[in-house]
Design brief:
CATH superfamily of the largest domain: Recombination protein O, C-terminal domain
Largest sheet: 5 strands, mixed, barrel
Shape: elongated
Strand order of the largest sheet: 1-2-3-5-4
Helix content: 25-40%
CATH class of the largest domain: Mainly Alpha
Order of helices and strands: EEEEEHHHEEEHHH
Bound molecules: zinc ion
Structural class: alpha+beta
Radius of gyration: 20 Å
Number of domains: 2
CATH architecture of the largest domain: Up-down Bundle
CATH topology of the largest domain: de novo design (two linked rop proteins)
Number of strands: 8
Distance between the termini: 49 Å
């Protein structure tokens, strides 16, 4: 059977060990969306991959496509940005894991999204060195919701379109896609309250470049609210909670 060979930029967003020394690696590629492929012998000490196949690593992937199959075969992976620092610090591991898990759940095979690829690459770069990596992650998750077509509405009521008075707390409903006003709230069973500070960040962050997120100072309480809010919206879209978020909560 002829197996076409493809070359693309890719970021490693997941993996599962197989029997022997093989591993299934989940790549987010620039040109083909999510690609799952077997890296044969990758766990051997003298593997021809030479330790380059690591979670969060970004590089050049060459793979054999097995037509009509969802599992392909890695021929070569050369890490260009290994993101080694992300694997050496528990906080950064948890934050980067949340980013790649959300992408892995949100994107499909054979559905390229070059904009999201760029955003994830930029986020992993920033998470490596940022002084406020948690804020960078929230900016990315907000971006991801938009790319997936579920940008939450944070300015006006999603039901009656009334504007929220400034500097007041607001109620958000993931099931309804955003803000619900006082009169419409009774129809939104999942609505929860957020502070004006958290709402201010959620409104502004969508228009802020990811590499500038690091400059935004949030109090721990506000950051917690923002993280809980984005996680609630992601749960709604992805259909289940992110495992890495549970890990973050325990740190
Ligand atoms: Zn309303």
């Amino acid at each position: 059977m002829l197996m076409p060979l493809h070359t693309t930029e890719a970021i490693i967003i997941g993996s599962h060990d197989l029997a022997e020394a093989d591993r299934i690696v989940v790549f987010f590629t620039r040109t083909a969306g999510k690609v799952r492929a077997v890296a044969e012998g990758v766990r051997r000490i003298r593997s021809r991959f030479g330790g380059s196949v690591q979670l969060f690593s970004q590089g050049r992937l060459v793979y054999f496509e097995r037509p009509n199959k969802t599992l392909h075969k890695v021929n070569e992976f050369a890490a260009l940005r290994p993101h080694r620092l992300l694997r050496e610090d528990l906080d950064r591991i948890a934050l980067a894991s949340t980013a790649v898990e959300a992408v892995s759940l949100g994107v499909e095979e054979n559905e390229p999204s070059p904009g999201l690829y760029e955003a994830l690459a930029e986020t992993l770069d920033a998470l490596e060195t940022a002084g406020r990596p948690s804020v960078v992650l929230q900016g990315f998750l907000l971006r991801l919701l938009g790319v997936l077509g579920y940008r939450p509405e944070f300015s006006e009521c999603v039901r009656c379109r009334s504007r929220l008075p400034p500097r007041t707390e607001a109620h958000l409903s993931p099931a309804h896609g955003g803000l619900v006003c006082r009169s419409c709230r009774s129809g939104a069973a999942d609505a929860f309250v957020v502070s004006p500070e958290a709402l201010g960040f959620l409104r502004g962050a969508g228009g802020t470049a990811l590499r500038l997120m690091d400059r935004i100072a949030l109090s721990p309480n506000t950051l917690g609210e923002v993280a809980d809010t984005l996680h609630a919206f992601l749960c709604q879209v992805l259909g289940r909670p992110l495992r890495s978020m549970g890990f973050l909560g325990r740190l």
